[in-house]
Every structure is written in structure tokens, then in C-alpha cells.
Design a protein that fits this description.
Layout: E1 3-4, H1 16-20, E2 25-32, E3 35-42, E4 48-54, E5 60-62, E6 82-85, E7 88-92, E8 99-102, E9 109-110, E10 117-125, E11 130-137, E12 146-153, E13 160-164, E14 168-174, E15 180-186, E16 197-203, E17 209-217, E18 223-228, E19 234-238, E20 245-250, E21 255-259, E22 278-281, E23 285-292, E24 295-302, E25 308-310, E26 317-324, E27 327-333, E28 340-344, E29 351-356, E30 371-377, E31 381-388, E32 395-396, E33 405-409, H2 423-429, E34 434-439, H3 448-451, H4 461-475, E35 484-489, H5 491-502, E36 508-512, H6 518-524, H7 532-536, H8 544-549, E37 563-568, H9 576-588, E38 593-598, H10 608-626
Parallel strand pairs: 1-32, 33-34, 33-35, 35-36, 36-37, 37-38
Antiparallel strand pairs: 2-3, 3-4, 4-5, 6-7, 7-8, 8-9, 10-11, 11-12, 12-13, 14-15, 15-16, 16-17, 18-19, 19-20, 20-21, 22-23, 23-24, 24-25, 26-27, 27-28, 28-29, 30-31, 31-34
Helix pairs in contact: 4-5
Length: 643
């Protein structure tokens, strides 16, 4: 029987341990003949990335020993952690950032010398026995960490620089015959989704590259994922017409032709390297993912006829599209199914699950299914979000009560939150919270104009949209206007603190490694994002006053509600002092505040125990703020100034 109990106090099988769970994070996929390789971020193993292989006979083995962590730090966010050639895997090891080679049945051996170098996004040049990759040089005296494209000998030795001169590089791709190299580059103040360039050059007999040709892109056109077809044609994704669509470069015409043009996104923001949204099934067919109205769909495109066939698969998100002799490989998820590495047979349309991110199953009676909402926001515009209502088959709230609402602001801020099974959200909804996950102006997936809404208005547009989402749900009777909380990580933490400092709507907040001082962030952040803020706020030094005006640390006296901070001690992207300064300012002002610091954690928590403790501490914090008694037995955390 359904019991009536206050929202927030419901008994839930989605415990913090379940939410942290035995799940792994599946990421990159590489196909080598009939073998498939991928990486798994494993919270139960201290957050390390393991490199896994499934052979043609179905055997699955972890090919990196426990003391190896296949994770690069190029651009700090990494990606492109490994590549494979002729059954030899080459991967970056997190501890020393050297490139290692591991052959079947052997232990990894370093192929690059010691030094302050990082390697990522490699592609095999088999004829010359080398890996062409992005190299990042942190040698003292190299200003701002030099980026370049370089060649690393497969059998060991120092890297040879092939292309340099731009601030950033990504996506080196070698033509099937090995005679041409394509790549992306961009320069400050652009991020790759603002503007980037696609180049092609000839590979000389001595392995150098010559005669680079600018194919596409510029300061206001974003290029994504260049790829060569099996017969040597160059393809890429561009947002030149508002939407990230597919193009083929016609060398004979020196022009690009659009393939399946539509108001949908075939690209993604390049926060990490080797993000893939399409691949070739032979020379004439492309398996691709497009996003429309917040949902991603897998489709097949006939290059010559233009026939475009969306596939009817029960998933709302697809990533890392990779093709090979065995079919199409990808990572898929839905609101009721955790992410899984899958294979599609393009002829029969049959799918096979190769690896699930979690073996956990949760009764659907405890799952909240996200609902897409569009709501009015500032300036007469419309914004987007996913609404998760409270859901627990054993409980209902009192008739006269409305649930507390958690407003979630995602990181980035140039990013996107998909509608997939996220146990951290189900942790809240199964206890009686409503959750709204806001894809505020500046998010990707809704076209370039929507993405550009945040230009010069970070801390304004995102805050307006989060508040508008909350008020929209309050007006519908779906949330208690007196129990509104906002939470977010990284850039989402900044949005959280701005909403609390500059607006009087929320009654509590949780900042996960969030930005509080924009000037300090500008001084201390890494090269990849060193001028990101100049697009989001304004150019320095002219906009220095604006940086101070929009920094919550200078307006802490305006915050009048409880705030909890979560921070990793080893965070290099948003250093701990960002949270510490803000927490201390609130503590001195007599505002209820909690500060939770985790040793060994960086930007984004990767360890199971950290994830578990963060959920518990945040629930305990809200229970004290909103005066309910959680069913869970949670070790208390100190909250200063709370009576």
C-alpha cells in the first residue's frame, strides 16, 4: 500500500551506495580488425581508467594492470586516451603522462621518454611505424603549455613536431593511403565550439607535412570531427548554417556540400578529445547521431542518394559512434537503462550489448521519467529543461504539501544535460524531491544562436533560466515555492552562487567545485580555458569591473540562505581556494555554511566513496534547511551558524 509521508522523508532503495554503486563510466571505443577496445572509469578502483579489450572469440580482458590509469591530461579534460594498431594498444598513463605500448600478453612499456609532455588523440601511421597525436609541452620556459601535432615512434623515442603555431590542435586524421593529414586548430579567445579551422596537408616521403590547405572554418564557424571515408573523401561537421550538420569536401570543386541538412545537431562541444558522432559503413553509408528537441537518435545516411533513415531504437542518447567489420559500435542510454556499449548490425538492425556500465536494476516504480519542458524566460525567450517529478511506488506526499525542488545547473557552461538514467537524480526523486535539470541559454543541442545566448552574459542568462524553470514549476503546482534549492558543479556551481548572491528566490544551495571569483579564476586557470571567460563576460582588462560585479565572492554579504560546498583538494581547473574563500566569507557573515573537502579528488569526483558521501551530506544539509527527517541514517556533517 502507498503510504503518505512528508516529501524528503520517503524510504528509497536508491541508496547512496547504489547511486555510487558498481557502475563504470564507459568512454572511448576503438575497433582494430575484429577486436574492440574501450575505456572504463572505475569509481571502485579509485577512479582509474582501465583499458579493456574484447577479442573476436568473445573473451573480454583488462589489458592495463591496476597501477596504470589510461587517462591523458591534454587540455586538462583529456580524451583520446589511447589508440590501437595491429593488436598493439598505445595509451597515456595518468601518473606520468607518458605514452605506453601494451601488446597481447605483455606488460605496458613506455615509448616516450620522461618529461613534462602529454599526448592524446593519436592515430596510427602504420607504414611509418608511428603515432600521430596532439602533444602538449609543459617544459619550464614553454609559455602557456605549447600545443602541436607530433609523431611518436611506435618502438620508442622522442616525438617529432609536425605542425605547430596555433594555440590548440585536435583530431589528426590520416587518409587511408597515408598521403594526407587532416586536423583541427583554433586560437584564443575562441573555444573549439566558437570557431575552429580544418586543415589538410600532404605527408612527405620523410614523414613531414607540407602545403597545408585551409578547408573550412574560421573565427565564427565551428568544425567538428574530420574523418576520411574508406575511398579517401574528407568529411566533417560544421555549424556554418546555425546547426552542426554533416559535410563532404569536394576537392575537385574546392567546396563543401551539405549532407542531410536539417535543424538538428550532428556535432557536440569538444570539451574532450576524440568525441565521435559518425563513422563509415563502407564508402557509401554513414552511421551518425543527430540531436533534435533534446533527444539523440542514431541514423543511417546514404552518401550518394541522400537517403536518411533514423533508426527506431529505445534510447535517448548515443555517443562514441565507431564502425568496423563487426558493425556499428556506440554507447547508448535511456531514462530507464544505464549506459551500455553496444553493437548494431547495419543489415539486420539487430543490436547486441557488449558491456553494461552497471549490472544494477531498479524497479521502475522507483524511477522518475524525465519530461521535456519549454518555459518562458527573460527577454521574451524560451528555454529548455528536463523535469523529474517525485517517484516512489511506496509513498505519496500529503495533499496539502508540494515537494521541495532541486534546480540543477550543468557544468561547462557550454554543455548539455541529456534525458538518461542518472541515479544521482533518482536518489532525490525517490525520496520525494522534484528535480529540474536546466539546459539554460548557452547549452548545446539547440543551435548556435541558443549556444551564443551566454556570450557576455554568463551569470545572467543562466541564472534567469534556472529561476524561470523554478517559477514555471511552482506556478504549475509542481513545487513548493518556500523550498527551492539550486545546485551545480564547476560552471554550474558558479551559476548556483550567482543565483544566491544576486537574486532572492532560492532557500538553499549546493556548490560542487564552483567558481566564486572570476578574476582569480582568470589568473589561475589552465591554458585551454584561459580566455573562455572573455567570451562569456568581456575582454580584460577593459571588463575588470564587470568581472568583480559578477563574482559572488564580492557579494557574499547578499547571500542570506544556507550553502554547502564540495571540493576536491587536487582540482587544477577550479582550485580549492575558490570554494574556501566563499565558505569563509559566509561563515564570517553568520550564514549557515558547510564545507566538505575530499583528498585525492580532482575536478569532478571519481571515487565511489566520495560520490556516496557527497549525496549523503547534501541530503542531510537539505533536511536541516527544510525541516524534514530523512529515512536514511546519515552521519551528520558540521554546519556552521545553523541553529
Amino acid at each position: 500500500m502507498t503510504r503518505t509521508a512528508p516529501y524528503g522523508s520517503w524510504v528509497s532503495p536508491v541508496t547512496s551506495d547504489v547511486a555510487a554503486g558498481d557502475a563504470v563510466v564507459l568512454s572511448e571505443i576503438v575497433v582494430d580488425g575484429t577486436d574492440v577496445y574501450w575505456t572504463e572509469l572505475r569509481p571502485r578502483e579509485g577512479g582509474r581508467k582501465a583499458l579493456v579489450q574484447r577479442a573476436a572469440d568473445g573473451r573480454t580482458v583488462v589489458i592495463t594492470p591496476p597501477h596504470f590509469n589510461a587517462r591523458t591530461r591534454v587540455h586538462e579534460y583529456g580524451g583520446g586516451d589511447f589508440t590501437v594498431f595491429a593488436h598493439s594498444a598505445f595509451f597515456s598513463n595518468f601518473t606520468d603522462q607518458r605514452l605506453y605500448r601494451v601488446d597481447p600478453g605483455t606488460s605496458p612499456e613506455a615509448v616516450t621518454p620522461p618529461g613534462l609532455y602529454r599526448y592524446a588523440d593519436g592515430v596510427a601511421d602504420g607504414a611509418r611505424r608511428r603515432i600521430i597525436c596532439v602533444l602538449e609541452d609543459h617544459t619550464p620556459g614553454e609559455q602557456d603549455a605549447r600545443n602541436a601535432l607530433a609523431a611518436v615512434p611506435m618502438d620508442g623515442g622522442a616525438a617529432r613536431i609536425l605542425v605547430e603555431g596555433s594555440d590548440f590542435y585536435s583530431s589528426p586524421r590520416l587518409s587511408p593511403d597515408g598521403t594526407r593529414l587532416a586536423w583541427l586548430s583554433w586560437n584564443h579567445p575562441n573555444m573549439p565550439w566558437d570557431g575552429s579551422e580544418l586543415w589538410v596537408a600532404a605527408v612527405q616521403p620523410d614523414g613531414s607535412v607540407a602545403g597545408p590547405i585551409h578547408v573550412a572554418g574560421g573565427s565564427d564557424e565551428s568544425i567538428f570531427q574530420p574523418e576520411w571515408s574508406p575511398d579517401g573523401d574528407l568529411f566533417f561537421v560544421s555549424d556554418r548554417t546555425e546547426w552542426w550538420n554533416l559535410y563532404r569536401w569536394r576537392e575537385d570543386r574546392q567546396a563543401a556540400e551539405a549532407l542531410a541538412p536539417m535543424e538538428a545537431e550532428f556535432g557536440r562541444p569538444q570539451w574532450s578529445l576524440r568525441t565521435s558522432t559518425y563513422g563509415f559503413i563502407g564508402a557509401g553509408t554513414i552511421a551518425c547521431v543527430f540531436m533534435s528537441h533534446g533527444v539523440r537518435t542514431l541514423a543511417l545516411l546514404d552518401v550518394e542518394t541522400g537517403r536518411f533513415e533514423p533508426l527506431d531504437l529505445p534510447y535517448t542518447d548515443f555517443a562514441q559512434i565507431t564502425t568496423g567489420p563487426g558493425g556499428v559500435y556506440f554507447i547508448a542510454a535511456s531514462p530507464t537503462a544505464p549506459a551500455a556499449l553496444m553493437r548494431l548490425d547495419p543489415k539486420t538492425r539487430d543490436t547486441e550489448v557488449i558491456r553494461r556500465s552497471s549490472s544494477l536494476t531498479v524497479d521502475t516504480g522507483y524511477l522518475s521519467i524525465p519530461q521535456a519542458i519549454e518555459f518562458p524566460t527573460a527577454g521574451g525567450l524560451t528555454a529548455h529543461a528536463w523535469y523529474y517529478p517525485p517517484a516512489n511506488k511506496d509513498f505519496a506526499g500529503p495533499d496539502e504539501e508540494r515537494p521541495p525542488l532541486l534546480v540543477v545547473s550543468h557544468g561547462g557552461p557550454t554543455s548539455f544535460s541529456p534525458a538518461i538514467l542518472r541515479l544521482e537524480f533518482q536518489y532525490w526523486t525517490s525520496r520525494g524531491f522534484a528535480v529540474v535539470d536546466v539546459n539554460y541559454g548557452g547549452s548545446t543541442g539547440y543551435g548556435r544562436s541558443y549556444r551564443n545566448r551566454l556570450r557576455g552574459k554568463w551569470g545572467i542568462v543562466d541564472v534567469d533560466d534556472c529561476i524561470s524553470a523554478a517559477m514555471y514549476l511552482v506556478d504549475l503546482g509542481f513545487a513548493d515555492k518556500n523550498r527551492l534549492a539550486i545546485r551545480g558543479g564547476s560552471a554550474g556551481g558558479y551559476t548556483t552562487l550567482c543565483a544566491l548572491a544576486f537574486r532572492d528566490v532560492f532557500h538553499a544551495g549546493a556548490s560542487h567545485f564552483g567558481v566564486s571569483d572570476l578574476e582569480a579564476m582568470h589568473r589561475e586557470t589552465h591554458k585551454f580555458e584561459a580566455q573562455y571567460d572573455q567570451r562569456l563576460i568581456g575582454p580584460l582588462p577593459a571588463a575588470a569591473a564587470l568581472y568583480r560585479a559578477r563574482s559572488p565572492i564580492h557579494h557574499a554579504d547578499r547571500i542570506r540562505v544556507p550553502v554547502i560546498f564540495f571540493q576536491g583538494r587536487e582540482d587544477k581547473i577550479v582550485p580549492p581556494n575558490q570554494s574556501e574563500m566563499m565558505a569563509e566569507a559566509l561563515r564570517a557573515a553568520g550564514i549557515p555554511v558547510a564545507y566538505v573537502l575530499f583528498d585525492g579528488e580532482q575536478h569532478g569526483f571519481r571515487r565511489a566513496r566520495t560520490i556516496q558521501r557527497t549525496l549523503e551530506a547534501e541530503l542531510y544539509f537539505y533536511s536541516r534547511c527544510f525541516a524534514f527527517t530523512p529515512a536514511d541514517l546519515i552521519p551528520p556533517i558540521p554546519i556552521d551558524n545553523l541553529r
